[in-house]
Design brief:
The structure is a homodimer of 215-residue chains.
Chain A (H helix, E strand, L loop, with lengths): L9 H12 L4 H10 L2 H4 L7 H10 L3 E7 L7 E6 L1 H16 L7 H7 L6 H30 L8 H25 L6 H10 L4 H7 L7
Antiparallel strand pairs in A: 1-2
Chain B binds a DNA duplex (30 and 30 nucleotides) through helix 2 and helix 4.
DNA sequence: GGACTTATACTCGCGTACGAGTATTCGTAG
DNA sequence: CTACGAATACTCGTACGCGAGTATAAGTCC
């Protein structure tokens, strides 16, 4: 398998896509990206900006096209995207759109170690999550409404998607909570008992060792 | 703000939760986690295992309790979870369950840079994604059915959640595709034009600079 | 019994992420 | 006109992630 993305950080993709519009210096890229709210759509850490730009240059995806200087401020290097950079950005975008990745969310991870807490506490935690989730959904919905007025649909899709996913998550949690509240959840007593004694019966331990289905 | 998780890698949480059951050596932890399929629920890279265990020890969340040796194999250090480790694991789990994080998925990132490709190509890419997604949903559903027979519900929640999220994603993509196919998507021509000329009209550029609502 | 594969049990080192820090300049309120 | 906070424009160091490599031991097929 060939080398995967020469610069793996998604911030690099964001940088490439703004650099396509016109040559920029790093700080300007950051301002533009910030202004467009791209840090809501991507896991961006601004501390990585200069490292990422340097790496993009090293791999020939960006190239320096001189410096400019405003007043007495430090001089800034302007970067332009190369052909390779354009190709990389397009290819990367294609991959992101076409390939559903297997990247478990933190919540999923949380669910998978939930057994370490008792059922009553879990219920409280999930209640809290649902509450926050519902608040966020409301806020997102309002924000989207506001933006719909002034932006073409094309630029709203990622927000629409994020909202849809949050709603789906809220619905799932709500459903689970309903079961927990109604005491319908099967194995509640075993769970409670396990948590009190803090060691799981041997048969369960064996069962939990579910063999992965050969695939 | 105090230091966040002393060992941030989620693999650390997985390690702590198995070490709670009984003292283990690192390789055994890996086997148990693998056997339980935890690497489907968490973003685990096995290459990080020894680093993570060492860091957990350094921060007093695990402690070495001697070594054992089987036959002529290299000696292995046994680690036991400390009280601090137990607390950290519980606290971390609580946080994961109760706090809906803002971590954009790669697909969301993809959507947010989608404008760089033309609408026709995007349609093809999304079709491909939907197809793969539907296949995965089918596979997940079957796997879940199989596991339901032999495992208590408690251990299936994370799979149920993953399935629900995938179904929601598939539904969203399907809906979007329907719009694209029907030509209902507003601004399609502008999009196509922009992609052909490869530079976006100035008014759009301004608009795209959506100010973040203060909050 | 020798040659092959598979499982066991790690080690190493490169590259990178990114928080925290720094130095300068601009706006502005008194 | 000067003091102060905010914005500008970066730099640096450390710790961390993780792929790739390694070496031995145990099955296993002929």
């Amino acid at each position: 398998m060939a080398k995967r993305r020469p610069v793996a950080n998604l911030l690099a993709l964001a940088v490439l896509t703004v650099a396509v519009e016109r040559p920029m210096h790093p700080y300007e890229m950051a301002s533009v990206l910030r202004a467009r709210g791209k840090d809501d759509d991507m896991p961006i850490k601004w501390g990585s900006l200069y490292t990422v730009v340097r790496n993009l240059e090293k791999h020939g995806l960006l190239e320096a096209v001189g410096t400019d200087r405003q007043g007495a401020r430090p001089e800034r290097t302007l970067y332009r995207v190369t052909d390779a950079g354009r190709r990389e950005a397009a290819d990367w975008t294609r991959e992101l759109l076409s390939t559903p990745g297997r990247e478990p969310s933190p919540f999923e991870s949380g669910l998978s170690v939930m057994g370490g807490l008792g059922p009553d506490e879990v219920r409280d935690l999930l209640r809290r999550r649902l509450e926050l989730l519902e608040r966020q959904v409301e806020a997102d919905r309002r924000a989207l409404e506001r933006e719909r007025a002034e932006l073409p649909r094309l630029f709203l899709l990622e927000s629409e998607y994020a909202l849809a996913m949050r709603e789906a998550q809220a619905a799932w949690v709500r459903e689970l909570l309903k079961e927990l509240d109604a005491g319908e959840f099967p194995g509640l007593d075993a769970w409670r008992a396990y948590h009190r004694t803090c060691d799981l019966p041997a048969d369960l331990a064996d069962l939990a060792e579910r063999g992965r289905p050969a695939q």
